[in-house]
Design brief:
alpha/beta, two-stranded antiparallel sheet, six-stranded parallel beta sheet
Length: 393
Amino acid sequence: MDNFNFYSPTEFVFGRGRENECGECVKRYGGSKVLVHYGSQSAVKSGLIDRVRKSLAASDIEFVELGGVQPNPRDTLIYKGIEICKKEGVDFILSVGGGSCIDSSKAIAIGTLYDGDFWDFYGTGKPVEKALPIGTILTIAAAGSEGSGASVVTKEEGMLKRDVGSDKIRPRFSILNPELTTTLPPYQTACGATDIMAHIFERYFTNTKEVEVTDRLCEGLLLTMIKETPRVMKEPDNYEARANIMWAGTVAHNDIVGVGRSQDWSSHVIEHELSGLYDCAHGAGLAVVMPAWMEFAYKHDVMRFAQVATRVWGCEMNFADPEVTALEGIACFRRFLKSIGMPINFEELDAKEEDIPILVEKLGLGDGKKPGFVDLSSADVAEILHIAANATI
């Protein structure tokens, strides 16, 4: 196990009806004038935004609102949010929505206290020195942004999807009420589950030795997702299943399962170009990319892939030929994704194999390599994408 520092200061407020406490939470963390940032009109029509307004008013918190966040959140709305915050003297941002809304809120939080362009921080490694405090009310279990210091947004010019990471943008609090996820369409639920599983796998595939504790934590979360996802697809109002998935999504990405070990984020980086170019759902893109990456990478450490195949997917260990077990585990993952309604190849994602050179170029590796579990060149990424394009069950 490697040396590590673990810092996760977010307060999680979990359970039924807890969104009605958002005013108290904002006040506890020093907010006096809030930007309420949300996505579609469904948050308004469901009555959620009205409950937020009442809670803020009851705590004497002033607020302004900005809706309209899209999946793969756009820089154009972020610039608008920054302008509102500066003009109105906003000192706290409350995100009401899923990962896209939270990521947009984090970008606004950075930009409001920065004299330049918030985009200066995305994909550049430039450190974030300050940001407005953020709170969240989560409505989709998926991205884990409610407990992480990461944000991913899209620049409309060129459709570039880039990320930033900083503890400065970790939410001060996150309200998690599983009831708010029961009205999600099945496709969105499945996309969220896929994203959660990807967050776990990208920590699981590591070159660090002797990490049994976090291996077992990862495996437990994966087993939870395998059990609970089909359950909520059949029973969308099942509170307990929704609760397990929601908490799994948070734990999967606040890095408690990733400490002390190297991690691999190649699948996410590659997928960002897919959703940047085609505007597909992030989880759907991951369903296509991640098993393809596994097929490319498994020979690097066959026994790690065989381990997850036996411990998580229940495959029988072939001691004479561990590759058979490793490949069966990957096949199990792809079959699971298909069973919950996810695409498994380019055709099902409405992507085009002839666009692979564009996707590789947008990734910007040039003659270099993307470091990770397996270091990837541009040619390697192209090979992964060709595997993804032609995948079958």
